[in-house]
Every structure is written in structure tokens, then in C-alpha cells.
Design a protein that fits this description.
The chain is α+β, with helices and mostly antiparallel strands and 100 residues long. It has one domain: Trypsin Inhibitor V, subunit A (Trypsin Inhibitor V, Chain A), CATH 3.30.10.10. 20% of the residues lie in helices and 15% in strands. A three-stranded mixed sheet has the order 1-2-3, with no helix packed on it. Strand 2 and strand 3 form a beta hairpin. It starts with a helix and ends with a strand.
């Protein structure tokens, strides 16, 4: 193998190594639990919120992570089984509560 091929091969390895996923959460540095330990977000326990106004959501009692999503809010499309999603309707009432 000539010198140019070795350099090209080393560059390709460096590029591929840089594209690998980092272990842990990039924002907190915490390593997430293995997928088998994540389970569900517990949405079944919060179904009683459906129909209630947004102002009655007691956020300190919600599991983390969670997000409250209005009808016109832009959200990421990543699926996280451990995240509680609370969807609001146009009247700022809870329309549904789901994991994701």
C-alpha cells in the first residue's frame, strides 16, 4: 500500500470515529439506563389530567423527563419511552397524556 492510501485510510478511520455516538447524555453527562431498565413513563397514572386546564398541572409531581405540548408547539420527533408527553388542545386543556 502506498503512502497516499495509508493517509486516506487513516483519514477515513478518523471520520468514522468522530461519527460514533457518545456514551451518555450530551447535556448532563449522565449515562442513561440500559433500554431494558427504562420501562414506561407512567402515563397511565396521569390519565386523570385529561380535560383539566393547563394551570392545574402540578409539575413537581410529574416524572422527569416530561414536556407539555401546545397545539402549535414545535417539538422534536425523537421517541423516548421514559418521557411523559402532555398534549394540550386549543383551549389549553389536557387533550392526552402519552409516553414518547
Amino acid at each position: 500500500m502506498d503512502k497516499g492510501g495509508i493517509i486516506a485510510g487513516a483519514a477515513m478511520i478518523a471520520v468514522l470515529y468522530g461519527c460514533t455516538a457518545m456514551d451518555g447524555d450530551m447535556n448532563t453527562g449522565k449515562t442513561p439506563p440500559p433500554p431494558s431498565d427504562r420501562g414506561s413513563c407512567g402515563a397511565a397514572m396521569f390519565q386523570s389530567m385529561v380535560g383539566q386546564p393547563e394551570g392545574e398541572i402540578h409539575e413537581p409531581s410529574l416524572p422527569t423527563p416530561y414536556r407539555i405540548i401546545g397545539p402549535d408547539d414545535m417539538i422534536t420527533q425523537d421517541h423516548r419511552p421514559d418521557r411523559l408527553n402532555i398534549y394540550l388542545d386549543g383551549d389549553d386543556r389536557v387533550k392526552s397524556v402519552r409516553c414518547g
